[in-house]
## 1
Amino acid sequence: MNKMEKGRAPGETTQRTERKGLTIHDVAREAGVSIGTVSKALNGAGSLKAETRERVVAIARKMGFRPNDLAQSLHRGQSFTVGLISNDSFGRFTMPILEGLERELAAERIAVFMSNATDDPERERQHIDQLMGKRVDGLVFTARRADRRPSLTTNIGDLPRLFVFSQNDDPDSFCLLPDDEGGARLAAEHLISLGCKRVAHVTGPEHFEAVRLRLEGYHEALAAAGLSPDPAHVLKGVWSERWGREAVDILFADGATAPDGIVCGNDQIARGVLEALRDRDIPVPGSVCVVGFDNWDVMTEAARPRLTSIDMNLYDLGREAGRRIIRMISGEKFKGVLRLPCTLVVRESCGGTPTERKGNV
Amino acid sequence: MNKMEKGRAPGETTQRTERKGLTIHDVAREAGVSIGTVSKALNGAGSLKAETRERVVAIARKMGFRPNDLAQSLHRGQSFTVGLISNDSFGRFTMPILEGLERELAAERIAVFMSNATDDPERERQHIDQLMGKRVDGLVFTARRADRRPSLTTNIGDLPRLFVFSQNDDPDSFCLLPDDEGGARLAAEHLISLGCKRVAHVTGPEHFEAVRLRLEGYHEALAAAGLSPDPAHVLKGVWSERWGREAVDILFADGATAPDGIVCGNDQIARGVLEALRDRDIPVPGSVCVVGFDNWDVMTEAARPRLTSIDMNLYDLGREAGRRIIRMISGEKFKGVLRLPCTLVVRESCGGTPTERKGNV
């Protein structure tokens, strides 16, 4: 089951917004079609052969054409400012998202101003008031985990807003998230491809949606390979190295049932797992292969051996948030949850040649 | 030698800015003096007995009195916005500074909007332009290291600006930094107080000013205790766990000259030192005591044993930046470098009872 497809937001088109000064005439000339055909192709409206539509869209994208309605609305008396409200007091997740967002918006000469709400609804309300007082064109909300947050308590009218690496229950909101399920599936598939037959999963607290989704991905990969997971090989705990070490004590108490591969819920857990295996003189990757989640260099580089991990591609998530908020400011509507693929980054903890593989979601 | 005293910026007074609605009359009544006396005491002007001045200042501070000139200028048609420009792409150093800054400015209903320049002067210039376009009342610059940065290439006129956890060579700029020298002195003093006689220092690259200052603090503490440092016990490298592990191989190659205490330049180095000592079955704190620098919980809590460390108090640095920029907006001038004290946080890597001690700078 591919959750990302299911969750794909409606209204997705393919225009890029990077180059300026192009008109619909340029695209028509390049494609050898009429202006009307270009318009139909880009708006997805009217009757047009699928191959014509695809060809025109591909040419427009390649040229960096930005439809006029977007260009016009962007330059019609707006403030050229988007507010980013973060609830990530570590900054570890927000900073790459901010960088991606700034990168996309800078191309439209839109500034991003970040405020930090640290999970305090009253401060968030103040930040929203202040940003609206500056007449921002849109608001982007982010957090330190891909879990559900309370709905906004402030009425921001029809101001464009989206949630990135953050999610809530309002069915009208638009949320951009990493594909946690696909990421964990990728990790488990990789271990299986290396020959692991007894793959365990050591993860965080079950009240995190990310924990539940990663667990699903793990189960899917095992099922697809015809492996039946040992229930004693799925251990939920907390997001710490200490828990990773404790989990190894549990998993390796009985040598007969010990795993030969471990998918970890984050890199800190994986680091703890690696240290505890080292303490027990269990060779990695010789006897056990280990994959983390986050691809946080502080952990992956210091681990012994260096840690294979799943990258959530937060910078790309930030760029997608930038492209979406621009289109929302220009009048497009999105809702629902859009999940972007994770990437496998191979290092020595799986014995593979260092490389990257993208989730095929 | 106390660098912080030497570096203290001129013009420091003691007013707090938290409570509102008080007037100079309230302070005069409470202190039993005339309005003129209060004014002289708070402005540090005119002739007044030192004890009177101190008493009035203490009362005004206790009452939370904010001088009228500040209140007036703050409410005279300004934008109630301060920009924070960060060059810390990790976010690890900026986020606590942002929190402290927001905390102080929120009390004055001033919003902080952060932008991320990631060491790119062109992006920094764009951010400055955009923030000035929003008519910010002041700019705060921060970075991911307390090292010197290039001077601003953008002319921001007389707009109030300061640098926090960031520094440049412009003699007119005002920079707030942690007292690196005092922090390292505190670390070495602590090891000496525990009975260590051969205290080593494993640190980062010498081109960092923080490395040079921490080295000075280390030498001062040893000199004050009558210990002469072994030159082979001072190792400069990089800011990584791997370097910490390598440094142990060097320091413990010869058991006769091995140290019994190690002051580390940051927590990652310290973590590597602890792991390498564990690999060699050298008991910590039984045979060697270890102190880190940064008090970064990701490292201190996962280390075995948990790591004693020096906290740079970045949140407090952010609060001081907030108080200063408010006063600069109200017309006060500051220049030079002001260093705020670090704190020792004791955990099991020194065997002490967990506690905190503030640098006496």
## 2
Amino acid sequence: MMDVATYQLLDGRRCSEALKTRIAHEAAEVKAARGRAPHLAAVLVGDDGASRTYVEAKVKACEAVGFRSSLIRLSASTTEEELLALVDDLNRDAELDGFIVQLPLPKHIDPDRITLAIDPRKDVDGFHPVNIGRMVLGQKEGFLPATPRGVCELLTFYGIPTAGKHCVVVGRSNIVGTPMSILMSRNAEPGNCTVTIAHSRTRDLAAITRQADILIVAAGRPEMIGADMVKEGAVVVDVGIHRIEDRSRKSGFRLLGDVRFAEVAAKAAWITPVPGGVGPMTITSLLQNTLKAARG
Amino acid sequence: MMDVATYQLLDGRRCSEALKTRIAHEAAEVKAARGRAPHLAAVLVGDDGASRTYVEAKVKACEAVGFRSSLIRLSASTTEEELLALVDDLNRDAELDGFIVQLPLPKHIDPDRITLAIDPRKDVDGFHPVNIGRMVLGQKEGFLPATPRGVCELLTFYGIPTAGKHCVVVGRSNIVGTPMSILMSRNAEPGNCTVTIAHSRTRDLAAITRQADILIVAAGRPEMIGADMVKEGAVVVDVGIHRIEDRSRKSGFRLLGDVRFAEVAAKAAWITPVPGGVGPMTITSLLQNTLKAARG
């Protein structure tokens, strides 16, 4: 008898499409009510290829749901003061509901200083300390960081139970791992998990990850998680995305996650693909945050 | 052969005394430099006995290190608007470095609304979302919540290594458990732990707590942690404090923690007593935060 795959896909494209249908409907309502559509601006400093790809995908997503979008491109030699002046303009622009400054920034610009300068009410990336604090405190007014919010939406869409489960988060970055661990532990739906946060200083990582009913990997290391690190029947969410050179492909590269998909899928109950898992959810969350900003 | 106790005490009183000596020295420096001592105000609404005891202990601690202190007592019938007006006055009082509004507040006052109204630069309890967010982001400008900061200071004072250890935090409150889990996981000293946060929805809590190299209990349930839930050689920090009626004592009560001290001490390498463990550290952290506010 042959082995048959028993896993089910946590399909971020499918989930995104469903959510975007609703977002488009609500955007039309906002437009009808106040005479203009939700409006997101994205600021891109320099010409990093991956950053440009991400920003362009965000702009395209805005168009697909009937948002207005603005793409502001600045040269890599833009000074911190110039960028702060732009942020100040965007904060005061009454025609703009939210904006993002795409990271990473050139080394001569302090990203913390830029983030702090953004009006928290327009911080649809959810990176400002006041929005992070509101997330920790479970206050509804703020914006959740886009990727962790997207993972929550994906779990909800597929009806994955979380209460009482052991969730292991690998990675402690400010924009993914740490907020993810907070959201999964809080008294909410999804949430109510026992949460373990692991990172580069964790000893015997496999012994930790094998305890996970829900394993969320945001470590930024290609294919670091193998089948031996995953419990049978786990829900596996792979936040990683890496371009690996591959001359056998027309594009010259292929995309890998932090998880070895084929071998882990054979043990998992649910798993995200890369691409097409968390990636589309991040952009959809950004649209949801912008819609929330537009509703005031 | 008789068993001998091998544990060592994480003595919060001793650690506090050492830290307060330094705080008093620095307070004198501040006073010499700008002509007035650090000044903390505490607002107490209503006449809850435990709250009064805490507030009075804070005022007394201020005096001991040469701070100025103000105790503002309001009746239990104070309205939310009246309390907000007072907060506004305190925010603008140039003679005041920091202030706290003692929790819990009467039920007709929304504590979130009060906390949000406090100027983050005077929020020496570290409860404002912007200070919580700064803690998550590892930014140095803010104030850490007093109890988690106190636990960190205690671990540092006794030279407890934390990097790479598995820290289990029991309890997910906004003011202790959740910030504690964040501080222990971040890339700092103390910190760099693999951290598990457990709470009322956790299944098989004992299987989780037995993994802890460092066990921090802030669950608010008297003596819930027994020896069977603790690994041999663990470091055990008990944040709980409960008044239990005891007619055999002159005071009429005795104090218990969340940990069964005698039986857990027999297995632990280090353990906090209750009282005299975390309690004094919380007040000392408040003094440290006030000193930081006074230094600007």
